[in-house]
Specification:
This protein folds into 2 domains: 3-35 and 123-235, Thrombin, subunit H; 42-120 and 237-245, Thrombin, subunit H (Beta Barrel). The N and C termini lie far apart (43 Å). The chain has 247 residues and is mainly beta. The longest helix has 8 residues, at 238-245. The protein is built from 2 helices and 18 strands.
Amino acid sequence: MTTLRRIALVLACLPISAAAIVMRHDVAPSEYESSFEQWPATAYFHFNDRFGSATGTLIAPMWVLTAGHVSAHLEHGNRVTINGKVHRVDNAITHPNYRAERPGHDIGLVKLQSASEVSPARLYEGDGEVGKIITFVGAGRPGNGKTGAKGASGTIRQARNRVEEIMFDTLVFVFDAPPDALPLEGISGPGDSGGPAYLELDGAIFTIGISAFQDIGDNDTEGVYGVREHYTRISAYLDWIKQVTGT
């Protein structure tokens, strides 16, 4: 039976893990290492004062885009780290059609109490996502395609993947094993909820998707080779985003 799992469970009764990038087993983890400075628009939410419990993307000086199953659990005053600077949540708005018990409409917006000085990521407004090579960004719980997400770490990492298809309102990625994998092939892991799929286009950084859930099929482990990961397709929600943010 196919099993769908949220990339992170941000319920108070469950342990919360830091964002994770799961890598190829045959490439040194150091090859995946990145930094705040390389992807400054990536935001890390703190639940119960733990770092990187969920992730988002700065899309305007006062606004962070994330998953609905993240925004639904954020509260006024929660901390948000953007490029090493701590901000506070003013208000979290979840898409009105989001329902925790089923996939779909998994998108939310978070207003900050103070504006960030970081250059926001741009929203991808096209419809040509399929075939694009994107970058996932996360920090902690490294793992590889054979073992899944294991251990704990605060290291920021990046990985590449390709948009395989569009399914309803999501972009679908597959974690390919060598020799079919990209040189820095990877997938998001537990704790990466709400994180971005970045696209570099004509010298600009766009965000095209939001980490939503992982289809692990008959596997018992998230992040192993063959899993299919779904990211909420940003281009499907442009009107709602612009209406809420006033941009």
